[in-house]
Recover the amino acids of this structure.
């Protein structure tokens, strides 16, 4: 298992390089490219300074060099391994040492890309940390209930409702939620955008022993997240529920279940201790694919609800043709997705000890 994990970690690097190459080429071949963005910004600069600025940016981004050289220049900055730089703490005799990755500077905001990602990534991770447990718990409970009552009202009715939800496009559902539940002309039950109210620091919902929470920031943030979380999770209920139901039914008819029942084991013990554990295996595989899809879905949700997360940051960077920012956000999102695949593989082996990644059945 350890050797498998090491192999997967080593494969992360060529995979990430391949993803960034495709992204870099797409940005370079887009109309105008980075040169067009620089020329557009030059209109706001004193004409006497344009030549100096253009020469500086051309040297900084290697715009006078071929595309492969430009990519290697960016990769060298982002790579955490390189020549010793000031402040690394490595002796001067060491030619190579770890350095803080330099993801460049955003052309649009003129701020370091690493600072922008550090500000927006926690918001996106918060969305995933809330939506994933909600989605899995509701889906698993509905799938188990449908398997226990196969052909009944809970099975047919619940499956039809979830399938109907799955058929609604995510962006349309978000617009409807904002239009009816956040619009002042209708129910106006939830805020339409952002993460906090401007007067959140004046709210006193929680005890005073925790000053940050006592000012209402926690409950106010949760209240703002209701509509984004619903928009992000509802479409995943149907597939996960159907997957749970099918896996449960497949295991319920297995020989070991009949043996357990013949020995006098209670129905709930058979269902949750034996059937459900084996039914988890397809769900673990699906969860490895689900986390990247939620990250992709957060792009729509964050843009629609004006949430300052990685999704909104990436969309704005694409529209502004901010090459450094697009490459860095793609790199971070890809890294999170690949790590989720690795965690799913490890969880698969933990759930079923018979699974071996070493090439031999154990």
């Amino acid at each position: 298992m350890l050797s498998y994990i090491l192999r997967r970690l080593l494969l992360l690097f060529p995979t990430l390089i391949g993803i960034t190459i495709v992204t870099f080429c797409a940005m370079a071949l887009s109309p105008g490219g980075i040169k067009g963005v620089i020329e557009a910004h030059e209109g706001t600069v004193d004409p006497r300074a344009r030549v100096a600025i253009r020469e500086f940016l051309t040297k900084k981004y290697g715009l006078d060099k071929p595309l492969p050289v430009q990519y290697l220049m960016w990769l060298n900055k982002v790579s955490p391994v390189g020549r010793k730089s000031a402040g690394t703490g490595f002796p001067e005799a060491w030619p190579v040492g770890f350095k803080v990755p330099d993801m460049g500077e955003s052309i649009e905001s003129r701020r370091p890309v690493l600072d922008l990602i550090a500000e927006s990534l926690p918001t996106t991770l918060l969305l995933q940390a809330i939506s994933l447990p909600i989605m899995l718990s509701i889906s698993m409970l509905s799938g188990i209930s449908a398997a226990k009552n196969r052909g009944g009202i809970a099975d047919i009715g619940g499956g039809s409702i979830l399938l109907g939800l799955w058929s609604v496009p995510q962006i349309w559902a978000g617009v409807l939620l904002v239009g009816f539940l956040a619009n002042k002309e209708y129910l106006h039950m939830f805020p339409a955008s952002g993460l906090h109210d401007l007067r959140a620091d004046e709210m006193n919902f929680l005890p005073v022993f925790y000053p940050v929470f006592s000012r209402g920031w926690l409950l106010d943030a949760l209240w703002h997240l209701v509509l984004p979380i619903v928009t992000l999770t509802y479409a995943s209920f149907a597939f996960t529920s159907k997957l749970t139901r099918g896996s449960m039914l497949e295991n319920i008819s297995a020989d070991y279940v009949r043996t357990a029942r013949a020995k006098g084991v209670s129905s709930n013990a058979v269902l949750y201790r034996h059937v459900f554990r084996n039914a988890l295996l397809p769900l673990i595989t699906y969860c490895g694919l689900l986390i990247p899809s939620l990250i992709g879905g957060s792009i729509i949700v964050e843009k629609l609800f004006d949430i300052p997360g990685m999704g909104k940051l990436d969309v704005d960077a694409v529209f502004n043709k901010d090459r450094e920012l697009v490459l860095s956000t793609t790199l971070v999102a890809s890294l999170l997705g690949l790590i989720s695949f690795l965690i799913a593989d490890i969880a698969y082996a933990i759930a079923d000890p018979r699974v071996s990644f070493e090439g031999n059945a154990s």
Observations:
- The longest helix spans residues 267-304.
- Residues 82-98, 205-215 have pLDDT under 50 and may be disordered.
